[in-house]
Write a structure and sequence with these properties.
homodimer; alpha/beta; Molybdenum Cofactor Biosythetic Enzyme, Chain A; Molybdopterin biosynthesis moea protein, domain 2; Molybdopterin biosynthesis moeA protein, domain 3; 8-stranded mixed β-sheet; MoeA-like (chains A, B)
């Protein structure tokens, strides 16, 4: 078995697709109430069991007549007919229209016996006991004959029809209140790994626990594809437990997916289960992300083993599994889930496997769609939401150059290009500004990265902090000031920067690319100058200078959690978390825009929001809540 | 009040749109479980409450080391470190990595204290009690730092974000199991009219009853737009009952829609309710279909009165109301719900109102999308499914000529152009053939109409029956024969055509455009010739010759129901319904294809199915089931 684990013979993506398509996950059929039939797929043809309308129906308000009696009538020479009564919608006619007579009739009412046409009320005048007809009508005029809409026995809807409001309308007209539809394929989801904890439960990070991302993510993906997800309790690496779960899921579902089960230890269990009760058809596919993939059967159920990393699991699910679920559910592939764009930057990749490169989209000038790679490593979950779709990069393509045309397969047809792409410093006030913009995307990559990316022309705006440099890219859109310094435990004795350097304190720094870190280093440089010491001597003296955190609040949170004595941060954060604070300065946060995109509506909106900050009432207008 | 009912001042469509947009249907917010959050819209920003990952995590299988200890190591000069233990995913490290030591580590495991990098297993060799390191690593290599994916305090998802599998993935990673989302707007649906019966209940056609089409249709439309439909029992024209229902619905819903309430009597009730408890803002809009439309408020709820005819009600709902429901639900307008096409035929219309013309689509040669009007009168429900979308025809446009470019707004982004458009004769064998084609559309318009439309180049195929004419359009794809004649009550004494003419029998004919009717008339011509009588004398002698039914089975069904003694029909139908049958002949049903489209896949498929019919095993292959 061990040689299998080495994925020696990776299948090509086409082979993998064909093996997955060969799985039988036909869920059969069921009957649902019409009220629940929306988006379901008809399992069999529905013929009309009755005529619609079920009777000859007046299609105008007016008078039911014998057409022959009106021949020759016009404005100049009206015919007068005797009025024998009236018929309203929803009642059985109590009159018969003989030659020379007429009955008042409402739209939708049953044509009374004898009548074969309706004269619309506008062309008549009621007289004493009679009605003057001022136009001739032909037999059938303003009458919808029984069955004219659809006749009993006629083919109404074919098998495979998806039931949208329109089809539900026709079924209603036919009086159908129960509909034979394809069942939704039941897809069992088993996540494996001792480290997994369900969202909402307590997490012990120190013991390496992480939240189970794949269960709910895949469940939502299954629902999107028209399947019915069934979540099983997550299996640890306990062989018997995993084996039991796989058996249970296989008995209850049309398809079982496990994720994380491509790890060596879980694979052993899956192999054992498949060898006892099924058939292994594929192990490993030459694609990134997602190389480890298992396809086979367990009992009567199909089985697919997905990688454990969420981005990999979702990519493999979407690319290979969702089409098969959709097909079994009878739901067509969504239309127009691709957009054409051009690379915003160069991207090099030479691993010789088909790569589904996650990309983000941004609207460039002239309405061009620019495409930039989003790759934070397959362990990252934020790349799930920071990307809009994928570009399939063929194994032989090593470089995509800026400006190259690419086709992006969107994650769903509902994906929209974000209105605003921002990058740069993390900041609590910025977060509140972003809440006031419709569908922005903001990547808190820090000042240095945002500076570089704005020069490359990728984002709409860069948010820069820390010491100002003379040649910052783009044009300034607005700014605000923030006070920064040391965030400290409430009982800390640290009262200035020197105390941090000279004392014995556990410190947490910000990462090198952040503006705050650059401001901190500048303060340390000044202190080194004052002391005539080397910068490295000071940083070496701070326990934790090299321990960095990614987000603006992170060091403060470590302090609040007791994991550190001091952290680099903002006064605003210290106040929010009820921590002590030693100010080391104030820095200006600059929002700088891509010069080609200052007219973009979202950039204008941000400019307005920034201008509002300067207004004296800004503090009252909700920004500081 | 009466002048209001006359719709004197119709609003323009723009005015109507603006009045509907002015309604307040904001449904507020609620909290849902993560498992139920798919497709919901975030009501507020979600910030990360914890670091992801929550610990410094090994991203490779290998050995956790102090990077400094590996400096200078390479294949030629490996460093050997003492092995102090192992750390697996999901466990708390029990070892500390001091200088000169290493710990075995699995992907996903917590980095042990002291270690700052991972050497991947492929670049190591385990020795007795130690491990040989054959490469240098830098601090942080193959380690994902705590918070590197997303750090505690960072902005994760903004308000207004629609929750797709990706966002659900990120929320899972953050351990969020309850999500604040916008509530779905509750939309109450009240159908009015004494004649309405809910699908599934008994229908009394003679009393003018019809099934309520609008309730379920609009409910499905509301769900599509992200709202939550609430069906109320249908109101008759009883003033008090309707008033009570409107009050109840207004108390319980964000928006109340009534349909059919634009009739004069119902309007009086609606006016009274609105005058007592609300505000009437609009009555009547210059658009077809759908002129009668009411917009206002009832109590705290918004109110829209829709026309009663299903096509009109759904058009007005889609055009004016759905965007507002979608907006309140926070769901963006679906993308690409339009296609460009060209008119297949001329269409004249000169009523001076904006018209949403229902159209069907067919793929012409060269991949062109041809557009043909579908108009069976606004009372028809089949036009709901025979159309794919609408073309907005401006009031000043009187004529659209064949070849004119038009833009079609699809009923939904999921609408696909039917693979096959057929028109012509209604036939039970044909129905079964169509079941074997993926998404065909077949309009049983009869032989004469199909002949004309195929000459115009609209359908892919025409199905013709009745006496053959020398110049039938298109190219023949295949055929079958069917035996036709008189379908009779089991105890009928009619044994030949002459008996029908000479006796006193209630007969039901087929409509003039059907091939069967032409065959019947030819038989009557021959009988007239034999008797040296006029054709009209014979037809005049048949009681019901002018009573026609639309579908092939309809006359037979009337006979089966006792509503007639004899009907024109097929032997197959008589057998299905256990009726007597007098044969009057056999006719050839010809399937003729548009010469430009014989290569179309669906046409090829139909050709194959027709060829299979001729095979000796056809009767066994399911066609006759």
């Amino acid at each position: 078995m061990s040689e299998r684990r080495e994925f020696r013979d990776l299948a090509t993506p086409e082979e993998a697709r064909s093996v997955v398509e060969g799985l039988d996950i036909d869920p059969g059929t069921e009957t649902v109430a019409l009220a629940d039939a929306r988006d379901r797929v008809l399992a069999e043809r529905v013929d009309a069991a009755l005529d619609v309308p079920g009777f000859d129906r007046a299609s105008m308000d007016g008078y039911a007549v014998r057409a022959r009696d009106t021949f020759g009538a016009d404005e100049a020479a009206p015919e007068t007919l005797d009025l024998v009564g009236a018929v309203h919608a929803g009642e059985r006619p109590s009159v018969t229209v003989e030659s020379g007579t007429a009955a008042e009739i409402s739209t939708g009412a049953v044509m009374p016996e004898g009548a074969d046409a309706v004269v619309m009320v506008e062309r008549t005048t009621e007289t004493d006991g009679g009605v003057e007809i001022r136009t001739a009508v032909t037999p059938g005029e303003h009458v919808m004959l029984a069955g004219a809409d659809i006749a009993a026995g006629a083919r109404a809807l074919g098998p495979g029809t998806r039931l949208t409001p329109r089809e539900i309308g026709l079924l209603s007209a036919l009086g159908v209140d129960e509909v034979p539809v394809r069942s939704r394929p039941r897809v069992g989801i088993v996540s494996t790994g001792d480290e997994l904890v369900r969202p909402g439960e307590e997490l012990d990070s120190g013991a390496g626990q992480i939240y189970d991302v794949n269960s709910y993510t895949l469940a939502a993906g299954v629902s999107d594809a028209g399947g019915e997800p069934v979540l099983y309790p997550h299996a640890g690496d306990d062989f018997d437990a995993l084996e039991g779960l796989l058996h249970e899921a296989a008995d209850e579902c049309d398809l079982v997916m496990s994720s994380g089960s491509t790890s060596a230890s879980a694979v052993d269990v899956v192999y054992r289960v498949i060898e006892e009760r099924g058939d292994l058809r594929l192990h490993g596919v030459a694609v990134k992300p997602g190389k480890p993939m298992l396809v086979g059967t367990v009992g009567e159920s199909a089985y697919v083993g997905l990688p454990g990393y969420p981005v990999s699991a979702l990519t493999i699910f979407r690319t290979f599994v969702a089409p098969v679920v959709r097909d079994a559910a009878g739901i067509p592939e969504p239309r127009t889930a691709t957009v054409a764009g051009e690379m915003a930057v160069d991207e090099r990749y030479a691993e010789g496997r088909l790569r589904y490169m996650p990309v983000g989209l941004v609207e460039g000038s002239d309405g061009r769609t620019l495409v930039y790679p989003v790759d934070k490593g397959s362990g990252a979950t934020t790349s799930l939401v920071d990307a809009d779709g994928t570009v399939a990069v063929e194994p032989e393509t090593d470089v995509l150059a800026a400006g190259d045309a690419v086709e992006v397969t969107l994650f769903s047809p509902d994906v929209r290009v974000p209105t605003l792409l921002g990058m740069g410093e993390d900041d609590p006030l910025l977060s509140r500004l972003l809440d006031r913009i419709d569908r922005p995307r903001y990547l808190p990559t820090g000042t240095d990265d945002a500076d570089r990316r704005l020069r490359e022309g990728v984002p709409d705006v860069a948010v820069l902090a820390g010491p100002e440099r003379p040649d910052e890219p783009g044009v300034e859109l607005g700014d605000w000031r923030r006070e920064w310094g040391l965030v400290l435990a409430p009982d800390s004795e640290v009262d200035e920067l020197a105390a941090l350097v000279d004392g014995d304190h556990r410190f947490i720094n910000r990462d090198g690319g952040s503006g705050l870190r650059r401001s901190f280093d500048a303060a340390l440089e000044r202190l080194a100058d004052e002391r005539d010491a080397a910068f490295a001597d000071l940083t070496g003296a701070i326990d934790g200078y090299d321990l960095t955190a990614q987000a603006n609040e992170s060091p403060a949170r470590k302090v609040a959690a007791g994991a550190a004595d001091a952290g680099l941060g903002l006064r605003a954060t210290a106040e929010t978390l009820d921590l002590a604070f030693v100010s080391l300065g104030t820095e200006r946060v600059r929002v700088r825009a891509n010069p080609d995109r200052t007219e973009k509506a979202s950039v204008e909106r941000l400019r307005t929001l920034l201008a509002d900050l300067q207004a004296p009432t800004a503090a009252l207008s909700g920004f500081d809540t």
